[in-house]
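Project outcomes to date are best conveyed with an example. Our students and postdoctoral researchers have been running inverse folding experiments weekly, and each run begins with a structure described purely in tokens. The record below, which covers 192 residues, was selected by the lab manager from last quarter's runs and is presented without edits.
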């Protein structure tokens, strides 16, 4: 059994890009929000779209970072950024946590408005709002100001009703059963 070479579609002309992007939210207490957004990134890259994948809150090295960097090194049109302090936030976020998130949001907004990206993913942006690093109003403003041809994806637990109202697609990941409950910790390549 061999591998069949597939000619990659490319969007060399602006007329080939979609003329209307939508807002997607992946939320809920179940596993898979980041994984779903990375699946969308893979599909977009396969279609020749330009992607910005930014993680708010997360600052640690997760396996998905390795793959996105490899794709970028191979000439894939993906930019990856992290705006977190590299630790879990327990209790009140520190001033440096808030500063990192605000800086990230400003940079993301500038990048989104630049016309350089077709798909912009803000991983854990909803968690950042829930923790008070940024506000839900910051995310709503980002949605409202988004250029119409940019697809915007926000992930994280705890999406507000107003945020979900603004979105065009909302998927809730619901935990039914999880092996964490049996003491299985995060495994490299599966959860981290």
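After processing, the design step wrote out the following sequence:
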């Amino acid at each position: 059994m061999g591998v069949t070479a597939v000619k990659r579609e490319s969007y060399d002309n602006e007329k080939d890009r979609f003329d209307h992007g939508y807002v997607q939210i992946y939320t809920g207490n179940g596993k898979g929000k980041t994984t779903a957004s990375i699946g969308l990134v893979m599909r977009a890259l396969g279609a020749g779209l330009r992607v910005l994948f930014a993680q708010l809150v997360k600052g640690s090295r997760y396996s998905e970072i390795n793959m996105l960097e490899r794709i970028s090194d191979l000439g894939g049109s993906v930019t990856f950024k992290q705006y977190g302090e590299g630790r879990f936030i327990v209790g009140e976020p520190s001033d440096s946590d808030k500063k990192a998130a605000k800086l990230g949001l400003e940079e993301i907004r500038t990048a989104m408005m630049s016309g350089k990206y077709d798909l912009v993913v803000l991983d854990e942006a909803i968690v950042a709002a829930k923790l008070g690093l940024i506000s839900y109003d910051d995310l709503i403003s980002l949605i409202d100001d988004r250029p119409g041809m940019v697809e915007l994806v926000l992930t994280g637990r705890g999406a507000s009703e107003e945020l979900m109202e603004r979105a065009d697609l909302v998927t809730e990941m619901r935990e039914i059963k999880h092996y964490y409950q049996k003491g299985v910790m995060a495994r490299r390549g599966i959860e981290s």
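DSSP finds six helices and six strands in the chain. The CA atoms of residues 68 and 122 lie 14 Å apart. The training component of this project remains on track.
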